[in-house]
Amino acid sequence: MDALLCKKLGDPTLSPVPSSIQNDNGSPIVLDPKHPIPELKTPTSVLVRVKATSLNYANYLQILGKYQEKPPLPFIPGSDYAGVVEAVGPRVSKFRVGDKVCAVAGLGSFAQFVAADESELFRVPEGCDLVAAGALPVAFGTSHVALLHRARLTSGQVLLVLGAAGGVGTAAVQIGKACGAVVIAVARGAEKVQFLKSLGVNHVVDLSTENVIQSVKEFLKAKKLKGVDVLYDPVGGKLTKESMKLLNWGAQILVIGFASGEIPVIPANIALVKNWTVHGLYWGSYRIHQPHVLEDSLKELLSWLAKGLITVQISHAFALSEANLAFAAIKDRKVIGKVMVICEGPGSTRSKI
């Protein structure tokens, strides 16, 4: 089968080469067309033919060697995916060959086949696109657990989403709207602003032309609102520091990531005086400590997807052989929504860049 192998740490935006060619261009990833198909090692194992797998910022950081989890080399990157059941073990009871499923893998989804225990798989509802289902678990799961399980966002609260045009950002915006919150989105550039407006957000701040503090304060004053109740922050850096000036007494801060490359400082003395709650949210660790939370979350999200309450914006889609272009889209901040890798072989094509 085709599989993308990370053989060393480095910049994955460099062009991958077939594994049969000496990799002298510095690329850490190679395309292996003869990688063995995973075996069904237990009676409840399921082999899935991968239709599409999601590229998350964490995948990019992992290949750079800058992520908190550092698997031994070589490894196949990739986490959330969707596809069709190809084969089942003798004791599998939940799925049959031909069923459409999605799941989250620790590693290994940048390949044409993935083996997983049936307990790790979720049935994709009828009418749901498989590429959209493959984009759902990590990005939407992160935002869903953060906003509903941790912050317990309720109708009428003010939600401020930083990095709102990215994968987790667009998910947070939609989940916030589904909860009845007043959603303020922060992004950069006219195209991203227009997209966020199409999602029905209550206010959008364009960082290329506006000051976030001034813009949000003017909106809050016009709507007779006191301030922000929940800050959703996958960005970090200076933007976090500025956004804290907009928070209400008793506000909640959701620390999702640091796409800016700078880890912000949240002053403990101000958190004390303002009675803020700071939530660190590493979604992947729930798979170890509270897997039932992820299971309930993903089931609800698939239900929402089937009902049309949320939609998955696919910004770019690439073949496995074009994975470096997918990583470049993430690195260069070209993404509005999700980047997907299509794992169906050489016939796959990419979307807009």
Describe this structure in words.
This protein is an alpha/beta fold and 353 residues long. It is 30% helix and 25% strand. It contains ten helices and 16 strands. Strand 10 (182-187), helix 4 and strand 11 (203-206) form a beta-alpha-beta unit.
Please outline the helices and strands.
Elements: E1 3-6, E2 17-18, E3 29-32, E4 45-55, H1 57-64, E5 80-88, E6 100-104, E7 113-117, E8 121-123, H2 130-150, E9 158-161, H3 167-178, E10 182-187, H4 190-198, E11 203-206, H5 212-222, E12 228-233, H6 237-243, E13 247-255, H7 268-274, E14 277-280, H8 286-289, H9 291-307, E15 314-319, H10 323-331, E16 338-342
Parallel strand pairs: 2-3, 9-10, 9-12, 10-11, 12-13, 13-14, 15-16
Antiparallel strand pairs: 1-3, 4-5, 4-7, 4-16, 5-6, 6-8
Which structural class is indicated by helix and strand composition? alpha/beta
Q: What's the β-strand tally? A: 16
**Number of contiguous helices:** 10
- Gyration radius, in Å: 20 Å
Largest sheet, if any? 7 strands, mixed
**Contiguous runs where pLDDT drops below 50 for at least 5 residues:** 346-353
The global form is globular
* Helix percentage range: 25-40%
Q: Please tell me the overall pLDDT.
A: 91
**Distance between the amino and carboxyl termini:** 27 Å
Query: Percent of residues in beta strands?
Result: 15-25%
Which sequence of SSEs, written as H and E, runs from N to C? Answer: EEEEHEEEEHEHEHEHEHEHEHHEHE
Salient structural properties:
353 residues, alpha/beta, 7-stranded mixed sheet, 6-stranded parallel sheet, 10 helices, 16 strands, Zn-ADH-like_protein
